[in-house]
Amino acid sequence: MPFDRTLAGQWSPPVSSEVTPRDTALYALGVGAKREELDFLYEGRGPKVLPSFAVVPKFQPMLDLLAKSGGDLAMLVHSAERVTVHAPLEPRGRLATTAAIRGFYDMRRFAQVLVDTKSHDEGGRLVAETTSTMLFRDQGGFGGAPMPKAAPGVERPKDVPPTFAVEEGTTPEQALLYRLSGDHNPLHADPEFARRVGFEQGPILHGLCTFGFMIRHAARAVCGGDATRIRAFEAQFRRPVWPGDTLVTEGWLVSPGALALRVKVRERDEAVITSAWLTFDA
Fold it and tell me: 223 partner at 20 to 30 Å CA-CA among 139, 232, 261, 266?
């Protein structure tokens, strides 16, 4: 079925979602938060909300658009994510999220689809914006233009050792826990489905789960653990991560309030997140 490229540029109706401390704490656990990060896990302390939680309310409106696009969702993988936080994310309240496909881009073998979202609080204030780069495997060649290249927000310095490195293991159940925040793709849970779509080793970890680990690690390294100081961040998902892999987040402090980032899997010494960056209140 060909892509319905007439969808590009059309904003969806708002999708309302209720946010509770249970939701924000469950998300924090899904991206690896530990008991020493109690501010993000316990309602007696708010709780605070990880800025990467912004990807949770956007998921359903984004998926609704992708389902209408004509692409095969079984062949869909997440390629990159960008988040801008405009106002503090609250542990209680309602958010209204709208989504729009920015464009369909032809990568010969792959089709690349960019989806933008905006989340507003009950008072109409813009809280967060996201851009997701999604790839439909084996669905390119439809005659569209390639995606325009964009400069990274913060460039990683060449041949310079990282300012910090944070290492943390994921659990074999990590994807099963993360999916409870709303991404129910069977690729992250069902071994038979994973093999059928080309992942013989079994279900992979959500790219957005690794993304959340990266944000926690950066907050620990440069924000004294206070992730609410983070303002914007972006990453490209280069290689699959399997639940149980050990993640190593490396960061380069390029200037006050600006980090370049990379995430590797220790067991394979393989970069799984690249071209990543983050800005924060220094």
Answer: 266
Number of H helices, E strands in the chain: 5, 10
Structure token pair of residue 19? 């946010």
Residue 267: Cβ-neighbour burial (10 angstroms; 0-12, 13-18, 19+) = exposed
Distance CA 38, CA 60 (A): 28
- Please write the tens of the pLDDT for every residue from 1-36: 578 888 999 999 999 999 999 999 999 999 999 999
Query: How far is it, in rounded angstroms, from Cα 26 to Cα 205?
Result: 16
How far, in Å, CA of 197 to CA of 241, rounded?
16
Tokens of 75: 């062949």
Buried b / exposed e across 34-60, counting CB within 10 Å, b at 16+? eeebebbbeeeeebbbbbbbbbbbbbe
Q: Which amino acid is at 136?
A: F
Cα–Cα distances (Å) from 246 to 113, 152, 243, in that order, read 30, 26, 9
122: Cβ contacts below 8 Å, ≥ 6 apart: 93, 94
Domain boundaries, the chain: 5-280
Predicted structure pTM score: 0.94
Would you state the pLDDT for residue 1? Answer: 54
| d(C-alpha 105, C-alpha 112), whole Å | 5
* Spatial contact of 107 and 140, defined as CB atoms under 8 Å apart: yes
- CA of 39: how far to CAs of 50, 91, 166, 225, in Å? 10, 11, 20, 10
The tokens for 221 are 């390294």
* Architecture of the domain whose range is 5-280: Roll (3.10)
